[in-house]
Amino acid sequence: MYTKKLKLNANFEKLTGNYLFATVSQKVKAYQTNHPHAPLYKLGIGDVSLPVAPVVAHALRQAATEMADIKTVQGYGDYEGLPSLRTAIAQRYGDFRLSPQEIFVTDGAKNSFNHLFELFDFDTVLMPDPVYPVYRDASLLKNKKIVYVHATPANHFLPLPSDIPPHATPHIIFLCSPNNPTGAVYTTAQLLLWVDYALSHKAVILFDGAYRDYIKDDSLPKSIYQIPDAKKCAIEICSFSKSDGFTGLRCGYVVIPQDLLIAQKSVNQLFVRYLATNTNGVSFVVQKAALAALSPEGQAYSDYCINLYMQNAHAMHTTLQSTQAIFVGGKNAPYLWLQSPAHLDGSSFFEQLLHNHGIITTPGAGFGTQGQSYIRLSAFGSATSTQQAVQMIAQYYT
Ligand code: MLT
């Protein structure tokens, strides 16, 4: 007789409270309830404030019209994504020569990490601390052992293989550049060290490139595949959210090169098999919109939006630089990672900024132990509100 009792996934016990941005959102709602007329300055979640490109909106309408016509209505699409979109994404990689078969369209970066975990049998993951909490939560829920590499002022917030604790043997390595939450960006030489490490230790890098389009300094790598041999050890995860305003539309992609083999087996082919069982692909309407975002008109609009967000980052950078504040980021990234004033920890600073001024930030502790005395500022708000907010923040450092 079968007697085993159904239990809940005990790994939920390992998660700290609610998801970071859900907790912040609850605190902001409580503040708004108590101060219904007070202005809010939004430097919190990395959510875009500008609309999608006109060419994207047009594609959405056109695709909706196709869906309403018996001659053009679309049913299930390819699990891996629209061929035309996969081709357009592959072309983004130019000289680094990726084929459309190496691109998989997803509904955004967040889910991709969970999907990719299903491809490997492993026990240890390595990630920076501070870290985008999704990598940590996904790993904890699957009962993986986590090894952290600390991002601190000493390593300019860019941990390297030399920071890995002795005897750690990670199988999966999370890297994010431009980094969320710190805004620090790896150089080619630094990524080369990670690729060398992964190849020599037979580990796979999951490279989060969600903020790649914020890199305007041509000497910095936008993709892990700019590093020779990265195709043998790295999967890249990207998103249309932050560059093309798709946070509400949901579209991203994963790159799994044909050269990535584990025990002579193709990881790419395994993902093809996995997707067929686990998804029916991304909405046709949204994929058409993503295709429009990659058109010359769409890309020009994306540049325009990123430019506006980066003007906010620049304003914050310049203002904070004129104070004693210690911070990083905001140069090729929409985030700044700011050490709280000497007498405050990051969480108290977050509370003070919210309750004294209506400024929403993100407490660094939510990103890891190394974030206890930090807050994250994001550049996705309006220009006026960002400038006003950073002036108020700067006063804590004078
Ligand atoms: C962020 O603000 O870091 C994220 O993009 C928000 C999220 O993933 O929930």
Provide the fold topology.
Blueprint: H1 20-34, E1 41-42, H2 54-67, H3 83-92, E2 103-106, H4 109-117, E3 124-129, H5 133-141, E4 145-150, E5 172-176, H6 188-201, E6 204-208, E7 234-239, H7 241-244, E8 252-255, E9 261-262, E10 265-266, H8 267-278, H9 284-293, H10 296-321, E11 327-329, E12 335-339, H11 346-357, E13 359-360, E14 362-363, E15 374-378, H12 383-394
Helix pairs in contact: 2-9, 10-12
The chain binds D-malate.
Keywords:
globular, 12 helices, seven-stranded mixed beta sheet, binds D-malate, alpha/beta, four-stranded antiparallel beta sheet, 398 residues
Account of the protein in words:
With about 400 residues, the protein is α/β, with parallel strands linked by helices. It has helices at about 20-35, 55-65, 85-90, 110-115, 135-140, 190-200, 240-245, 265-280, 285-295, 295-320, 345-355, 385-395, and strands at about 40, 105, 125-130, 145-150, 170-175, 205-210, 235-240, 250-255, 260, 265, 325-330, 335-340, 360, 360-365, 375-380. The strands form four sheets. Strands 2-8-7-6-5-3-4 form a seven-stranded mixed β-sheet, with helices on both faces. Strand 3, helix 5 (about 135-140) and strand 4 (about 145-150) form a beta-alpha-beta unit. Helix 2 (about 55-65) runs antiparallel to helix 9 (about 285-295). The longest helix is centred in the C-terminal third of the chain and has 26 residues, at about 295-320. It starts with 19 loop residues before the first helix and ends with a helix. D-malate binds near residues 21, 45, 46, 110 and 180. D-malate binds next to loops.
